[in-house]
Batch of 2 targets.
Target 1
Amino acid sequence: MEQLNTDPLKRVEEQLKKCVKCGACRQNCPAFNAFQREPAVARGKIALAQHIMTDDIELDDQTYLAMSKCLLCGSCVEKCPNDVPTDEIVIAARESLAKKRGLTTFHSAVGQVIKNRTRMKMGAKMASLFGPLFFKKVPESSGLRLRFPMPFIGNKRFIPQIAAESLIDRYPEVISGEPGKPRIAFFVGCMTNFVYTDVGEAAIALFRHLGCTIIIPKGQQCCGLPGMSGGDIATVRELAERNLEEFEKYEVDYIISVCATCGGALHRLYPLVVGKRNPELRDRLEALAKKAVDVSQLLRELGLEPSETAGEKKLRVTYHDPCHLRTSGVRKQPRELLKGTPGVELVEMDGADKCCGMGGTFNVYHYDSSMSINDSKSEAIISTGADVVATGCPGCMMQLSDGLKQHGSNIKVMHTVQLLASKLKQ
Ligand code: SF4
Ligand code: SF4
């Protein structure tokens, strides 16, 4: 196992040297667009990471703030002529900062919450019960707005309602399917479990329709990605290990996720951030990653064919690519599913693959910048004249809903699986 006193940046030292400071990464960097300052772009963060590694910079709040201005969207990695993995470097720099000067109060609290499913469940229950005291319902929408400003939330933001009962509590652990059909484990993810439970219900309905056996391990945990934003890799490792144990209990063909971020954790970040430095976990995490697929990939592979409900009006739908699906190369599958759905007309928006500004805790930490990144996304969606914007990530759904409402639009935000499930023949 890696020595506790090893600077995580040492692991990416060679990659740091590959940056030739050409600036090609400025193009399409949402953080640079929002802050218009060199430290926000990949090149600036790489220079800062080098100083953090060599300890020739003061590790003050400004250093921390500069490193927090990244959505880990991966656009710079795609644009870099030298294949510099800036997202990996930013993760290592945040971990290095956390080791050298400790976690921030905010990230320490995030770690405490995501490590404890029972506490999270209690919090969701309380929020669902007492929400009306703090939030008011927004007319003609299913969103909420705070009655008064609160730290990290403000009162401009539109927030989705917390479900009265979590998705995992609504279903048995095993939903048996037809013999010979695939066995699927469902990595639910916190947003789907506590907020967008209808997204999880839609995915379950689709795989039941296909005759699959669906397993929803009761002991599954948060994927841990919110901890990664603050450099809390110990929490990410703990959660990766607990999820590993839980999903290894069952023999399955696939592990599906309806959340691009959770899918990105299982598929790429667990092996990269946890597996690389923990040889005792590496093979097991890689085996887990091989089975992990996005829901749209598997529905496409299994040949889902929704049927049109008679007499229904044609829906004009546009699709937003979540960053963690784009960087995993999952772009055509959701579009093919939507195009193959009777009654759906798919219209492309400008910049469909550009980040919506969510970036996990970036949206909490830098809310105004997050919404300024979202402006062009909202405008692009509105200009398609679509009835619905579909996407593959509950985090993006929340951000897109907030942005569209703040732009005065009532365009409906849906997960691709909700749209597909709504077209299934009853
Ligand atoms: S594009 Fe790549 S090589 Fe060029 S400045 Fe950005 S990170 Fe460095
Ligand atoms: S990962 Fe995204 S936000 Fe971060 S530096 Fe690269 S392009 Fe900018």
Note: Residues 259 and 393 are 4 Å apart (CA to CA).
Target 2
Amino acid sequence: MSGEDGGRAAIDFSEPHLARVYDYLLGGKDNFAADREVGDRIIASLPAIRAGVLAQRAVLRRVVRFLVGECGIRQLLDIGAGLPTAENVHQIARRIDPATRVVYVDNDPIVLTHARALLAGDDATTVAGGDLRRPASILANPAVRAHLDWSRPVGLLLCGILHHILDEERPAELTAELVAALPPGSHVFIHHLLDSGDPAVAQVQEAMRASLGRGTFRTREQVLGLFTGLELVDPGLVLVPDWRPDRDTPRASSNPVLRLACAGVGRKP
Ligand SMILES: C[S@@+](CC[C@H](N)C(=O)[O-])C[C@H]1O[C@@H](n2cnc3c(N)ncnc32)[C@H](O)[C@@H]1O
């Protein structure tokens, strides 16, 4: 591994990794026994979890369509991109404008390896190792700097990652540091696990913390605090299914798991 670029790190299959646990919950094949064990513990405390992760992927697709199709954004910085799956960010964006440039950032070497294999020969999309807990190093990464035009608005995607940042790692300061570097007119998307007071929250949080060492459900007020310096666009910070739903988006009332995460997009004035 060289510096922030985790793509050449030794890969440990005996320890669970968040990206692979998420892949397992999504029904993917890029996971190992240790990841499936954690996934099964989470499923035991929240059997309907799969509906939640599918809703997460669906809102990500809706947000990308909104940013590229309605806000005119043509460059996306996806931090905590995850393992490639069906309908990745660059594929959704490209259907609207093939010239859209995308940078995927993740701190998991397996994610970087898979993403690089998928994207070999794709000049409009690049993959960079980086850690959200060190925004300055992401912003200074030559691959990130060179791939995006920092005089034009950027769509920053923080989907399903900030709840893996502990309170003591100061998530609001991390987002503020990234926002400060973005040109005016940039948009920031946050998907975050929501502490709604549901008894399932404590159990799932405990399962995540015990196995992955992290995982924090936050209240709506706490998540709003991550949008400091941004103007929330309609419909604001809402339950995931309520963020600009498609006709076939399952309603939040149809499944309690769909009330355990919120989503919002903020615009930098
Ligand atoms: C739950 S997955 C979400 C994937 C995708 N964004 C989505 O919503 O479908 C979270 C991803 O964030 C990555 N991640 C977690 N903490 C990170 C950090 N501090 N810096 C960079 N990536 C991180 C994990 O490796 C994983 O791939």
Note: Residues 30 and 135 are 27 Å apart (CA to CA).
